[in-house]
Structure formats: structure tokens, C-alpha cells
Amino acid sequence: MENLALIDSFSEFKDDKLIDRVTLMAILEDVFRNALKKKFGSDDNFDIIINPDKGDMEIWQRRVIVADDDLDLDHLEITLTEARKIEPDFEIGEEVSEEVKLIDLGRRAILALRQNLISKIHEHDNTNLYKQFKDLIGEIYTAEVHHVRPRVVILVDDEGNEIILPKEKQIPSDFFRKGDNVRGIIESVELKGNKPQIIMSRTSEKFLEKLFEQEIPEVADGLILVKNVVRIPGEKAKVAVDSYDDRIDPVGACVGMKGSRIHGIVRELGNENIDVINYTSNIQLYITRALSPAKVSSIKINEETKRAEVFLKLEEVSKAIGRGGHNIKLAGQLTGYELDVIREGNVAEEEDDVELTEFSDEIEAWVIQEFAKIGLDTARSILKQDVNDLVRRTDLEEETILDVMRILKDEFNV
């Protein structure tokens, strides 16, 4: 039969798109039936036989033989004279099957058929792709950088699927070049028109949780449970872990000897500082652990308001708050409580203390702000600190910190 370019391309579609034979046959039959409906008004009396492996297809039209003088002839009927041209011994009332050539549909119809076929194939691919990645939501996925744009990185996986990594889903320190392999979790899949848009994230708490599963065998095996994860991407994270087996130290197993196990995770996350703590249902103990490395003196909890007053010695306050307030913020998110820091200290010394803002004529405002970020807002609170520790926890140079301390010491004649 005249299979034309359309039929020749059947096998190409099958090979290129990796569509199974049954699915391809269903798509092809649907396309041709739509074409027959447009031309004849109905496809009820047509049989379509397709062999996509060979590129063969046959269309047969079934019609009932009627008398030549029947004036109400439709596409379901054929006159006796026309029927006997096919087979001389046909009689009125019998059914005739006649092959319909593709060329009989007309050139424009054939072109429309091909376009419709391509459209149906793409629609099938997009549906399958959508289902495939819907099942992968929350799982770690690796793809290669194809194109870097100001607000988004376009990734491509081994099968040529496009994955989008938006700027807000990237860790602040992330820097990608074309050809780099990137790991993240599949966060969402949305249909834009008929095409699925696959979104990857590296900032999600789920990404960190899944990295624990990948890198720590006891987590993967279910011996250690990741109870909760909170993070400020690229800066700091807190992970609460637990184990039903008393013989397993969940924190030790996750961190490893000298941090060997967690090092790979930290590196993947742009040197994000990760605190791993033991989960407990004892909320006071949980808050105490969450505020590490600060040593908590006591805690007063209000269950109704989900607030907790945390009492700390003066020298522990800045540790509890952490650089930029990250430590106390994450501790609150991890435990589900709003944490209020209450300073404990020498009353006379505290009354003698001076707010750092009082020195604004000698100390620049941005320097005062840097100290405030780590909870140091008074003169004595700074003088209690170690210079090297302040260099590590702030963005200030050692020389600047020494100048500030000199000014503050002069105030107290130290």
C-alpha cells in the first residue's frame, strides 16, 4: 500500500521514543480514527490493522450492499453495481469490505495525520515523564549543568530530561559551570501547558535528611532515625537523631571518627555547619541539647504558649545566640518553642555594665551591629570573650576587635 512518509516513520517513533508496541499501536489507531471521523463523519464501520514494527498499516471499510436506486445512500452503504466491481457475485444485503488507501484521504489530511501523530507521541512522553518524576519527589537526583543563567541553572539528566534549579533553591556558596554534576532533591513537578517542569532544590531540609540516608549506613538501614532537620542553607543546620537500640550512639555513628562520616555531607552543602544532637521527648533536655554549644543553667517552659525562658550565665549568652542569631533561631525551630534568653550574672557587675550603642562616637555602627548579631550588646559581655573566638564568630578583623576592647577597657579602667 502507499504508506508514504507517515508509515515509514512509525518505526522511527518507536525507536526514538522507546514506546512499547502496544502503546504505539493504540496511539496510531487513535490518530487514524480521528482522521476517518473528520472525513466520513464516523469510524464505526472501519477496521484498522497496524504493524508498527514493519511500518505496515491497513484500513478496511465495511459497507452494506443496497439497490442502485436507493437515493438515501450514506457512507455505511454501497450500491450493488459498485459492489460487483469488487466481487461479481455480491448480492443486496451482504457486507462488503474494501481497503481504503491513505492517498484517498488527500494530501492535506495526511499532513494533518503526521502532525497529530507527533503531538500524541509528545503528549505520551510528557505524561510518562510527569508520572516518573512525581514518584521521585523528595528523592536525591543527580544531573549535569547544561546552562547557567542569572536566576536559574538548567540541568540535564542522562536521558536528556531538563531539570530546573532556581537561584533561591541553591546554597548561597554554590557556583556551577557547564558540565558539572549537581545533586539535589526533586522538590516539585508541575505541568506548564503540556510539558512537565521539574524543580530541584539544594536548600530543602529534605535534601540534608536524604544525604544522611545516603552517607550513613545505620540511617539507611533504619537503625538510626532522623527525627527532625532544620537549616539555614550554607550557614548552619541542626539534625535530631534517635535510635531504638541502646547499643548504638546515634550522634557518634552519624558524625564518625573525627567527623569522617559527616564531612562529605558538610562539603556537599558548601561547608554548612551541622550540629547533630540526640533527640529526646524530655523538652527541657531537648532545648538544652538544641542550644549547644551553650551551657544552659535552667529553663522555664510555658506549654500553652510554646515559649521557654532559657537562663544562661553572661558568658554563655553569645554562644546560645550564635553568629547572626542562627543558633537560637534553629534551636527554636528544632524544638518547636519560642526561646527567650534570660541573662544570669553578677548583679553589681551587670548594673555597672554599659550598652555598646553608648560608644557609637568611638565605635562604628556596623562594628556594633556585628557584635549584636552574636548576642553581644554590652561592654562587659564583649570583654569576657576570647579575641580568637570573636574573630571566628564574626566578620571582624582581629585588629578591629582589639581596638574595641581597648576602648571598652578604658571605660572600666581595666
UniProtKB/TrEMBL annotation:
Gene3D superfamilies: 3.30.300.20, Nucleic acid-binding proteins, NusA, N-terminal domain. InterPro entries: KH_dom-like_a/b, KH_NusA_2nd, KH_sf_prok-type, NA-bd_OB-fold, NusA_N_sf, TF_NusA, TF_NusA_bacterial, TF_NusA_KH_1st. One of its GO terms (cellular component) is cytosol. GO terms for biological process: DNA-templated transcription termination; transcription antitermination. The keyword Isomerase does not apply. It is found in: Cytoplasm. One of its GO terms (molecular function) is DNA-binding transcription factor activity. The keyword Transcription applies. Keywords: Cytoplasm, RNA-binding, Transcription, Transcription antitermination, Transcription regulation, Transcription termination. Pfam families: KH_NusA_1st, KH_NusA_2nd, NusA_N. Residues 284-347 form the NusA-like second KH domain. Residues 6-125 form the Transcription factor NusA N-terminal domain. Residues 202-279 form the Transcription factor NusA first KH domain. Monomer. Binds directly to the core enzyme of the DNA-dependent RNA polymerase and to nascent RNA. Belongs to the NusA family. HAMAP family: NusA_B. Participates in both transcription termination and antitermination. NCBIfam families: NusA (TIGR01953). This is Transcription termination/antitermination protein NusA. It comes from Flavobacterium psychrotolerans. The gene is nusA.
